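Usage

Read records sequentially. Each one opens with the input sequence:
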Amino acid sequence: MPEDHSPPPGDARTRLELRAIQALLDAQRRRVTAYAERYGPALPAWQVPEEVPAAASLPPSFQEMLDALPMPALLLSPVFGEQGKLKDAVCLALNAEARAYGTSRMPEGVTVPWDRPGSLYARFPSLAGTAIPELLVDVHRRRTPQRSDTVEWLVTTHAGPVRVNAEVRIAPCGEHFLLTWEPGSRLRMAAAAQQLMRTCWAEWNLGDDGIQPSRRFRQVLGLAEAAPAPSLFDLAAAATPDSLPFLYQLLYDVILRKRTTECELRFRGGARVFRMVAEPVRITAGGLTWALRAVLIDVTTDRRRREAAQRAERAARRERERAEAVAEVAAVLRDAVLPHFQDELDTFGVEAAAVYRPDAREAGVGGDWYKARSLPDGRLLVALGDARGHGLSAVTLMAKLRYALAGLAYTAATVEQLTRWLNEVACADASESTATAIVARYHPDRALLRWTCAGHPRPVLLRDGRATQLPAPAGGPGLTLGVLPGTPYTAVETPLEPGDIVLMYSDGLTERRPADPDRDTRRFLAAVENCCRATAPRPGHAGLQECVEQIVARLDGPHRTDDATLLALRRTGG
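and closes with the structure output:
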């Protein structure tokens, strides 16, 4: 809060708002003054008697005077050593508050009984290491009261050490000392609470601008220790222009409407924000507001966190909207390119079924694709691939490869040639446009499946309830698409018997972290055989679809980090 409370020059709106606040405060001062002038003379006035009557008697005892004190108190007598140095103090008496405090803080039998005078240090040896001895010396030498903000000492008990802290005051009392204390250092704890919570409070008298601030009022507001406590108008003059309407509304509600209310304040020259909660202090119930009591809380950190959270929320919302838009585009594109099988392959003596599970973390956008369609030469094109990455880039590459393969297949070229051409398409796309694939052609006249592998998991043959991975082409699986132009590929020929099911799948269905392809393959084979033992694949398209869904359900789970696709081709003819 800056020392200069003058409004910014040339800011007409600010000056008007400050004048409104000043007028509101001045009007209330006049009301309070008028109230005091009206009712003040009727109040009883103190009269100084012409003669002072003699006291009837002295107090009954010094002990009763001690007991009348509202805080714990000890009457001490100094003990001097050689050369007149103060070396101890004898406790002559203590009041009821002191006895109650000792009973509440220390078990019985821990200290020397108080039924007779005794050494203060004998009762509490650790007091000798505190500020008490120095206070006693200063009181004895100066004959004026002395105070210590905090005195701490330990008392050993059978339950463990007891820590005692207090604000101690020692005053001369004739030839003795009167030691009083406030248990628990209430003032220090209040100051610590204000510092920890960045909170302060004050009460402003509306009749004369008087203010009663809390102990750390200035420090919390950022004022110098010696600076005068600000009046309500000083707060207004130091506030930023955008805070003034809210401050005026708070003053209006508290002073005239007699309501408890709050507002936020920002002070010029600083970045801190305070929440001010104020209430009226009335002369009588329902009467005039005499003073305004308020708590000011530094909410700068909370506000910054809130603003950061709001920025993060806006960014997340934009990202979510972007992801939803991408997912929507990708879903439309995927629906357009992924086939839905029913009975269109019956003429080839085969059935096909597929299950696709997108990666939920990527809003359903991935690069898996598959295809099974008839060709003009009477054969069937079957393929499954996995374009690298996620998002629209992966979907775009997936669609490009799928449509390229569909067009190239009309040339009646061998699957080896089709795979080479598909590799050239991927290589020409971009430096990171890579994909894996199984490209196959089914010859119904020979019940033969000829297929190539481009860096993809090899197909699995399910025959008589046993699942086996088909052997790799001569020389091993071919290179991933898009890595090296001119790469040759070799085909494998797999004869199919009636009831045989060929399963092609993407690695997202089986892969776990850390990756182990051999273990992933064994996991897939076991899942297929277990599903077949539990429920044998029923005849018909619906039975095959049910079978592949059961296999995917057995392998799928929260561990999956990629798209998962399973394509099944079953020979039905004799």
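Summary fields computed downstream for this record:
- The longest helix spans residues 300-337.
- Residues 42-46 have pLDDT under 50 and may be disordered.
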